[in-house]
Write a structure and sequence with these properties.
37% helix; nine-stranded mixed β-sheet; 2 domains; disordered C terminus; alpha/beta; three-stranded mixed β-sheet; 13 helices; single chain; binds adenosine-5'-triphosphate; binds magnesium ion
Length: 357
Amino acid sequence: MATEHDILKALSSIIDPDFNKDIVSLGFVKDMHIDGERISFTIELTTPACPVKEEFRRQAEEAVASLPGVSDVCVNMTSKVAAQPKVAQQVPGVSNIIAVASGKGGVGKSTTAVNLAVALAQTGARVGLLDADIYGPSIPRMMNLAGQRPNFEKKTIFPLDNYGVRTMSIGYMVDEDQAMIWRGPMVSGAVMQLLNEVAWGELDYLLIDMPPGTGDIHLTLAQQVPVTASIVVTTPQDIALLDARKGIAMFNKVNVPTLGIVENMSVFICPHCGESSHVFAEGGADKLAREQKVDVLGHIPLDIQIRLDSDNGTPIVAAHPDSEQAEAYRRFAGKMAQKISIINHRKIDIPVMIQNG
Ligand SMILES: Nc1ncnc2c1ncn2[C@@H]1O[C@H](COP(=O)(O)OP(=O)(O)OP(=O)(O)O)[C@@H](O)[C@H]1O
Ligand SMILES: [Mg+2]
């Protein structure tokens, strides 16, 4: 009969490439039950969005099934996302805050934030999405929640849910032309209020869809909001890259690590002939990433279905989950979650490179 020692020894051959350590030393193996020849245990990962989750399960099943005296192996995969202390302290219940930013406007921040949020929620993560774009909130429309009003109870505001994501936007509360006359301090005040007075509940990841630019409002937000890390969205165009560089510099200034760059509208694939064209030039984001020593977290194509789904309030990862575009968002979500895990595991505040990323 296999003993607990034999099983742990077999499982210690499985290495988590992100931490470069085996899953037993990392403390991922829990709740082991040995019932004669039947073995069951849990592997608790650092994120439900782990891209190698199924690979780990397969390896664990194989490693234990190959032991003498084992006839049946049941592996339960779970996860527990670690909280960044400064986030959990300031926004109780929320483990990590990720700012989705860009220097230049219109490069696809909101589209990226929405699809990223839904992709994370689809893995089972608890996800929130805060629209910090006070002048031009897009989240209500993109999440098919336009025209809805949140519930209030005393000083608490309740988020509006769709696609498994809890959202909040100034667009639920004031007319767009009303917000247009607000000045900078009012804007950051409003965002802080949404962050602190919304009943977010328990969240693994709270994404913030930032307004375009790198001005005073952005700096104030980056300083006041306890951000775990930022993601900078750019198109491959020179001007957008220049602004993305400013975005990274701004977060550096306030000691917020940039997890990486997302190159949006990276390549256009003709829906008729399938030919790809680099409408906004090629290779720019990779070059910027090398220069800034950050990763490219994803390349999202310029694609009409992404825009149509976005306009319809049905993010492509929900509306067309089998599409290649949805897969690109899911890969990107997995990478983001991995990097957040690494940051929290190492308790460091510096950019992290993923091998072969
Ligand atoms: N990969 C893509 N393919 C096709 N259209 C896209 C893509 N990404 C974004 N879009 C479209 O581009 C427009 C701008 O996108 P979005 O609103 O997400 O940008 P933004 O950076 O948030 O803008 P702003 O700076 O105004 O907040 C939208 O119409 C959106 O549907
Ligand atoms: Mg936007």
